[in-house]
Every structure is written in structure tokens, then in C-alpha cells.
Amino acid sequence: MRLDSKYFDRIRTRRKREQETEQAPPTCQWDGCDKKGAHRAPVGRNAEGQFFLFCFEHVKEYNKGYNYFSGLSDGEIARYQKEAITGHRPTWTVGVNKSAKDSPLHSEVRSGAYTRVRDPFGFVKEGGKGSGPRFPQARKLKSLESKAFDTMGLHANATSAEIKSRYKELVKKHHPDANGGDRGSEERFRAVIQAYQLLKQNGFC
Hints:
Blueprint: E1 39-42, E2 51-54, H1 56-64, H2 74-84, H3 98-102, H4 106-111, H5 143-152, H6 160-174, H7 183-201
Antiparallel strand pairs: 1-2
Helix pairs in contact: 5-7, 6-7
């Protein structure tokens, strides 16, 4: 644009903002102190993000006696410290959190026998022809798993309900109280419990 253009005179410029008057620094909030309060000190628990303003001498004095847990019992302090490990975020145990419940077991992922395929709309079908759900090949049992099935007196293809039913039956049968404290029955009782726990941990029931 040329300096002698008719449009040049129409251009308006903003007025310069008036310089803001600088605010005087705050005074120390310690009773009876008139020095500058240039140092922040936390107000306390349940007032995060809020601070007192003190001078250097008084902020040191305040920090010496500051206790974040003042007024809390030992149990409340221990609970706070425990929750601080996870950043005070909620946590769940396995089986309580729905996403953890629906996720595959570690043993299933390692053995390639992940069967918890979520298919709510039935898209996964045998051969893609809609002849039924597609299941992975039968899982190869490990030696301990095979031994556990033998201990329970079940075949490897037993369902979860069959395993649980057999476990209850054997526990009632071999419980020491039901056999007068017979040592042989007690050993069998322990073997059944161990076998059931192993099958449960590996996702069979």
C-alpha cells in the first residue's frame, strides 16, 4: 500500500493500554509482621493448592511445626499411606474388576488355549458359514494338570461344573472329621484340595 493511498488514513490503530500500576508485594501473614510475604507455605490437609504468604524468617518457623497428618489417627495415616502407593486411584482384585474378569488367564495365553473370545453378535463362526461357534483345538495338558485330573478321578474334558461337583464330593468323603482322624484319609484330603486349586488357577473351573 502506498503512503499516499486514500485507504491509509482509514486504518485505525488501537490505543496503547495504560500501564497497570504495579501492585505492592503482599505483607507477611504472620501476626505482627510487616515484612514482605514472598514465600509460600501450604495451608494444610483438605486445602491443597492454598498457601500462606510469609517472610523468610516466619516461613522457616511455620515449616518447623507443619504436620500434614495433624488430627488423624494412626489407622487413618496408615490408610492414607497405603492409598498413596496407587496415587489414591481405585484398584480392584482379580475377579472384582469386570475388565480383569473378562481378560484371558496368563496360563491360557502362554499355552495358546485362550477360549474367552468375546463375540456378542456371533460374527465368529465355524468356517465363516454360520454353522456354530468356533472353538480352538483341545488344549494339551501339562503333567501337573494331568495328575490333578487323575487325583480328582476325572477325565481331561470335564466341565467346570463337573470339577466343582467332584471336589465337593471328595472333600466330604475324605474330611478328617468324617473319618475319625484317619491319616490316610487326611493325605488324600490334602491331595484333593491341591489338585482342585491347581485346576482353578489354570482356568479349568
